[in-house]
Amino acid sequence: MKKIFLVITIMFFTVNIYSQQSNSDSLTIDKAVSLTLQNYPLIRQAKENVDVYNAKLDVQGSSYYPDVSAVAIYNRIGPVPSFDLPQGAFQLYPENNYDAHIEVKHNLYDFGRRNAEKQLLESYKTSAIDNVQMVKTNLAFATIRTYYSILFLDKSIAVIDTNIATLNQHINITKKKIESGTATDYDLLSTKVRLTDYKGKRIDLQNELQKQKINLEHLTGLQKLDNSAITGDFLELIYDTNDDSLIQAAYAQRPEIKLAIDAEQSAHLKESLASLGNRPNVGLYLSYGVKNGYVPNIDAWHGNWVAGFQVNVPIFNGFRTTNQEEEARANTIVTETGMVNLKLQIKAEVDKAIEDLNSNIEQIKTAKEQIEFAKKSLEKAKAQYASGVGTNLDLLDAETRLADARFLYLKEVYQNIINGYELKKAVGDVVW
Questions:
Q1: CB of 183 within 8 A of CB of 174?
Q2: Alpha helix (H) ranges present in 242-310?
Q3: Measured in whole angstroms, how far is the alpha carbon of residue 199 from the centre of its chain?
Q4: Which of 62, 127, 131, 135 is the least crowded, having the fewest Cβ atoms under 10 Å away?
Q5: CATH number for the domain harbouring residue 30
Q6: Which range marks the domain in which residue 386 is found?
């Protein structure tokens, strides 16, 4: 894959709009993403899910150790079997039976069932780890989009402010011309209408800016971002793209692909585990303790022990094993089909991102041309207005066209940046 590179293309409409000095409190894009990955609780939740599977593996590992327990039993028997002897009645068992012992049970061999369970849990853990990366990726790109939205809105407001200041100057000039009889109230009213329109646009942009700042505060964990805190370049980015290489890179890098591979692996392991449902199980049993009931003194406590092997061979379980195998095979087919669909989706996302970028490059060229034409038109309108040939309305129209062209350029640059990051996301590039 050809490296995505930055081409030096930046236009300055005003010094205040397109150049910002960084300060100690500035929030760069890298810092914003870093804060999001550090503070956002969804990442901690994803990491804690990995710890859950670590704990499950520890629990499963306990099946390789013996199970040791202490048991105390009391039984009252009645009637007690007895028979008569010359010496008197003789009881076969005591009425009060006591048994206290330590017993050890150990699963010696289960034909790979425990190992299959361990491998399945390890597969689930791998999925949880890969999910952490996917959560980070989604949050990083959400932060980037929000960050550049703030830059775009801030610069758009600056363009609006420039035009509001110009319109206020027009109003002052028009008032003087009305007093001298060279302008009419209609000229003043037209200018005020334009001014009101720009003020309304500014309110909408300011409202959206505040909402985006709230989003960024929510993502990064910061409190009350200052207007001058966000600093960054607002540049056109041109990407050298190659469809085939980018798609192959996406197949290798996308976290969704890794999760799909994990799901396939888990499905195969679950299928293997289901196939072991009818396997025998061999266990060892040991017990040592004290109890009463031994002749001739049935009430006296005596030490005793038991040792043995147990083989458990499933014969019939209501077709449960067969049904579990069929379920596991069906799940495997679902995951394999899901991988095919996912690759098609990823290819479409990469192709769309490339198309959006190519289209955007042409839109930027058009926006630049519109700015140049609007500048020349404004110069001509100013000259005509100064000589008395042009009207105030002609001049306002020319200024509006220039403002619209500048706003369009800002919008296309913003879209260019977002499309560039959409391509990075589609390819699976790590941006932190």
A1: yes
A2: 243-253, 255-275
A3: 38
A4: 62
A5: 1.20.1600.10
A6: 15-67+112-278+320-427
For residues 275 and 91, which has the higher predicted lDDT (pLDDT)?
275
100 assigned to some structural domain: no
Indicate whether 9 pLDDT > 70.
no
Instruction: Report helix, strand or coil for 88.
Output: strand
| Poorest-pLDDT segment among 103-112, 157-166, 172-181 | 172-181
Q: Give dist(CA 334, CA 328) in Å, integer.
A: 10
Q: Give the pairing type, strands 281-291 and 96-109.
A: antiparallel
Q: Round to whole Å and give the CA distance between 55 and 168.
A: 68
How far, in Å, CA of 202 to CA of 244, rounded?
A: 44
List 285's β-bridge partners, or say none.
105, 308
Does 274 fall in a domain?
yes
- Contact status, residue 214 vs residue 9, Cβ threshold 8 Å: no
Residue with tokens 């209501």: 318
Q: Which of 113, 125, 124, 127 is nearest to 273 (CA)?
A: 113
* More confident of the two residues 72 and 88: 72
Average pLDDT of 417-424? Answer: 92
Structure tokens that stand for 111 in this block: 């034909």
Place of tokens 């519109």: 370
Residue 194 within any structural domain of the chain: yes
How far is it, in rounded angstroms, from Cα 294 to Cα 93?
A: 8
How many Å apart are CA 144 and CA 27, to the nearest integer? 12
**Residue 359 to residue 361: CA distance in whole angstroms:** 5
39 by Cβ neighbours in 10 Å (0-12 / 13-18 / 19+) ranks as middle
Burial class (CB in 10 A: 0-12, 13-18, 19+), 84: exposed
pLDDT at 315 over 80: yes
238-243 contacts: CB < 8 A, separation 24 or more?
Answer: 238/7, 238/9, 238/361, 239/4, 239/5, 239/357, 239/420, 239/423, 240/2, 240/3, 240/4, 240/5, 241/2, 241/354, 241/357, 241/358, 241/423, 242/1, 242/2, 243/350, 243/351, 243/354
Backbone torsions φ then ψ of 287, nearest 5 degrees:
-150, 140
Number of domains in the chain: 1
Lowest mean pLDDT among 13-17, 39-43, 201-205, 218-222: 13-17
